[in-house]
Design goal:
The protein is α/β, with parallel strands linked by helices. Helix content is 30%, strand content 17%. Strands 7-8-9-6-5-4-3-2-1-10-11-12 form a 12-stranded mixed sheet. Helix 3 packs parallel to helix 5. The chain is globular.
Length: 332
């Protein structure tokens, strides 16, 4: 059996794999996708469930303990509970989660729960229907809310909301989202707007920073205190409200990069392994999964990818180059 370790040249241990099951999506958030003429990977190039399961099993033997299903929108992948059941049964996998936009979640939540899914992140930037339509170019706010309440009824936990923070747009939403989270026992995670859109719209002055959001929350609800991290490799900085009701988190890739603690690998829907969300290069593992390559050969592809991992994405330097793929193609 291969030695259970994936350590890069900077001493970072990797035990977290994000698996994109499709690059297709049923909404069109302006900071992620064009509204029309979106090019998707041909279906024949998308990894099968059996290929995903095999890769995840090999990764688990190398010390990967956490899996997260992403897209695109993962619920567009037919029979997703079948994959959830396969992955949740892998020896060594301790945590299986999914990130979804929630549009069709209400009709899938029970089957996914029955298959073994417990942790879920739901993307929602606003509680205002018109602003939701402006951001996503779709009128599906009510469907997302139905999905959230379905997960609450079924017993998912923890449930988290992911909200992308774009300056001069979502300021009215920061406090209402946190209040909604406090009311329902949901942690809201605010994600600083990152340069991953397909249309080149990102500008640094369009990023609503963590410090600004903390000030809004303190003024709108009450004081917050930072929670010491249980795992220093976790991407979010978490805070709890001093009155004891609820918590919020921030993924602050722009203002507080966490690259030096990163423990993540990503595999795209078309079978490319990436050591960073912002990576320029990627490793083709689909070919190895389809041409009869041995486990040892696939292990070497994983190890070589980890060995090449850079120190960080350099968003805040003149050396930064956006990745050639947009977010929906990489996997959230």
């Amino acid at each position: 059996m291969p030695a259970p370790e994936l350590v890069d040249t900077f001493g970072r241990f990797h035990d977290n794999l994000r698996i994109s099951v499709t690059d297709r999506c049923n909404i069109r958030c302006f900071y992620c996708m064009p509204e029309t003429e979106v090019e998707f990977v041909p279906r024949a190039e998308v990894l099968s469930f059996e290929e995903i399961e095999r890769f995840a099993r090999i990764a688990a033997r190398l010390g990967v303990k956490k899996l997260r299903l992403t897209g695109g929108e993962p619920l567009l992948r037919k029979d997703l509970p079948v994959l959830v059941k396969k992955l949740s049964a892998i020896d060594g996998i301790e945590d299986l989660a999914m990130t979804t936009n929630g549009v069709t979640l209400a009709s899938h939540a029970q089957a996914l729960y029955d298959a073994g899914l417990r942790r879920i992140n739901i993307h929602l930037d606003t509680l205002d229907r018109e602003r939701f339509r402006e951001i996503t170019r779709r009128d599906d706010f009510h469907h997302v809310m139905e999905g959230i309440h379905a997960c609450l009824r079924i017993g998912y936990g923890p449930i988290k909301i992911n909200a992308v923070a774009v300056k001069d747009l979502v300021e009215p939403d920061i406090v209402p989202l946190a209040r909604f989270g406090r009311e329902h026992g949901i942690e809201v995670r605010y994600i600083e707007f990152m340069p991953l859109d397909a249309q080149g719209l990102w500008l640094r002055n369009k990023v609503l920073l963590q410090s600004e959001m903390l000030e809004m929350l303190a003024e709108g609800i009450g004081p917050l205190d930072e929670i010491p991290p249980q795992d220093v490799r976790a991407p979010a900085t978490e805070y709890h409200f001093r009155d004891g009701i609820g918590r919020v988190g921030f993924i602050s890739s722009v203002s507080r990069p966490f690259c030096l603690n990163c423990n993540r690998l990503r595999i795209t829907a078309d079978g490319k392994l990436r050591y960073c969300l912002f990576a320029i290069e990627e490793t083709d593992v689909k070919t190895a999964l389809r041409d009869g390559s041995s486990e040892e050969q696939i292990v070497e592809l994983i190890r070589s990818t980890v060995a090449r991992k850079w120190i960080g994405h350099e968003i805040n330097t003149t050396q930064f180059v956006p990745p050639p793929r947009p977010m929906y193609s990489i996997g959230g």
